Amino acid sequence: MKTIRQAQDLAIHGAAPAFEQQLHVGRPNIGDREAFMQYAADIFDRRWLSNNGPLVQELEDKVARHLGVKHCVAMCNGTIALEIAIRALGLEGEVIVPSYTFVATAHALQWQGITPVFADIDPATHNLSPAAVRRMITPRTTGIIGVHLWGRAAPAAELQQIADEHGLKLMFDAAHAFSCTSGGKMIGSFGACEVLSFHATKFFNTFEGGAVVTNDDDLAATMRLMRNFGFEGLDQVSHPGTNGKMIEIAAAMGLANLPKLDEVIAANRRNYETYAEALRGIPGLSLLRYDENERNNYQYVVLEVAEDCPASRDRLVEALRAENIMARRYFWPGCHRMEPYRSLFPHAGLVLPATEAVANRVVVLPTGQTMDAEMVQTVVQVIRTVVQHGA
Ligand code: T4K
Q: How many whole angstroms from 249 Cα to the centroid of ligand 1?
């Protein structure tokens, strides 16, 4: 692999650097290549490529066991998994969600004619504020979707209490939180169900993929029907459904990645600690912290740029990009400022002050298996230089 310096040399000499010479947030973690190739050969030999194949079943079984949950229903991606879970739970009318999340959380509702109602976050945790959720409940509210942003748990117990008090369904978007714990318990068993994303950019990937995990037998059975057009037998359709199936080659990638989870965590954690150490003392900057008492996947290195930092967040991002470091402003500007929500709720920002403040100050930095300490130091050197020069 080319180093960042080679990429910079290219930039200096005017040639646009190739994608693989840039440092990206979201470069996929790739587990055991040889195991993957063997799985692929087996798939060809079996000529069973999709439709609840043996590798999908094996992956479901292993994910459920890893998370200590009864059922894992694998899907083609996290967004379809969200849509199916929302539908299987019977949500309708209004559902309360954070605006500070990837837009798929809101779209999965809107796509089905359900109104996402945005509640504000706690600026310290970036997760839903239970008090804000209470303020957004109306007679049309049927549910709450908490998001475990950056893999750090949403306040599940408080949200469950609110849901119980008001007769609402509670589910979680756990797209970032695979293999993370909350109070020592694996995320996956909170609420009625939790939705995982196995997208290429995630801590654990199946190229594209996702799953819903739940301890509810009936809910799992309904979702299994829904992801396969509602087919119950060869010719019998007993339920409305869609095509949400995971394919065998995706499951193969998952099975090749699963045994390597701890290696990926170790690489992410090393990078995180190198960033934390190197960034120390640069004025106006702080790294979002992970609770050392929990298991974290450290997939996101979240830098917060304070208002009094000599360089603005956007100036930092611009400068990093000029050096081929593709930092991201996740999740700017907040779902409520994206269409169709911006037009539907033009004044939503008034009740989302923490969302707006956090969305305006976060930069996510590259990490993962493709980054090493030297690369992290280079990223921080760029940041330090920009902050020293201000603007
Ligand atoms: N809920 C939450 C909270 C989520 O964060 C997501 C997805 C979902 C639900 C929905 O789950 P899925 O339906 O996606 O399974 C990316 C991912 O596409 C998306 O999965 C993820 N969240 C989101 C946080 O990040 P973009 O629009 O930023 O993708 P893009 O194409 O800009 O790629 C991100 C970076 O990754 C780039 O710097 C390039 C790099 N990259 C990407 C791919 C695909 C690679 O280096 N190699 C690759 O193969 O959304």
A: 19
